[in-house]
Amino acid sequence: MDAILRAEGVDLFYGTHRAVAGADFALQAGEVAAVMGSSGSGKSSLLYCLAGVLPATHGAVSFDGTAFSTLTDDELSTLRRERFGFVFQYGELLPELTVEENAALPLRLAGQRKAPAHAVAGEVLGRLGMTELLQRRTSQLSGGQSQRVAVARALVHRPSVVFADEPTGALDSANASAVLEEFLRLARDQGTAVVIVTHDETVAAHADTRYTMTDGVLTQRVAT
Ligand SMILES: Nc1ncnc2c1ncn2[C@@H]1O[C@H](COP(=O)(O)OP(=O)(O)OP(=O)(O)O)[C@@H](O)[C@H]1O
């Protein structure tokens, strides 16, 4: 099967510092891949290249057979907005919006009207146990609740790939594993592939494929 997301020989330089060094990566539709490695090893930098947020200095990244380098900035923005979802360590929600409004944002940005967008967001939030909190401002949520909203927002438009950078890194371990399991169950149910950057071996254990980043060099770990 052809990979939905593929990186070949990707380098990312910050000035003279080579943060990503010759990375090869392939992700199938619906696959969950974890990228582990110590602090500063280049995991987030790789994620930004794979998501088309930073252009690779050398090498190529392609989505569904189309190299990012052949797209205009507008086309790449549209691809990121419509086909990708993002979850970060601290949720990165809009604090003045409600839970429902935050989760519905990708649909609203895609031009959907409020009522149907909120109906879909409400359904996804319900699957994450957030039905009672739909009208609450996200500034008034716990860490675990915030991450559930971030997960809903990343999945609500049924993207092909979600990029998650330490998605449960700010939570205590019981909360972290609950949110991670709900996140991956929803993603797998809708066939969304996931790339998770993590320091945490227990997070990586949930993935189908595991990689290790060492000083910018990405290596696939062979299952034992
Ligand atoms: N914008 C930048 N400009 C210059 N150097 C950077 C920049 N961003 C990251 N770096 C450097 O590139 C290297 C890789 O950083 P990156 O954030 O990708 O690592 P990481 O593995 O995600 O780390 P952490 O686990 O601590 O988040 C580090 O040495 C970092 O200091």
UniProtKB/TrEMBL annotation:
Domain ABC transporter residue range list: 5-224
Q: What InterPro entries does its record include?
A: AAA+_ATPase, ABC_transporter-like_ATP-bd, ABC_transporter-like_CS, ABC_transpr_LolD-like, MacB-like_ATP-bd, P-loop_NTPase
SUPFAM superfamilies, per database record: P-loop containing nucleoside triphosphate hydrolases
Q: Name one GO molecular function term.
A: ATP binding
- Which PROSITE patterns does the UniProt entry name for this protein? ABC_TRANSPORTER_1, ABC_TRANSPORTER_2
Taxonomic lineage: Bacteria, Bacillati, Actinomycetota, Actinomycetes, Kitasatosporales
User: Which Pfam families does the annotation name?
Assistant: ABC_tran
The alphabetized UniProt keywords are:
ATP-binding, Nucleotide-binding, Transport
Please tell me the species this chain comes from.
Streptomyces lateritius
Protein name (database record): ABC transporter ATP-binding protein
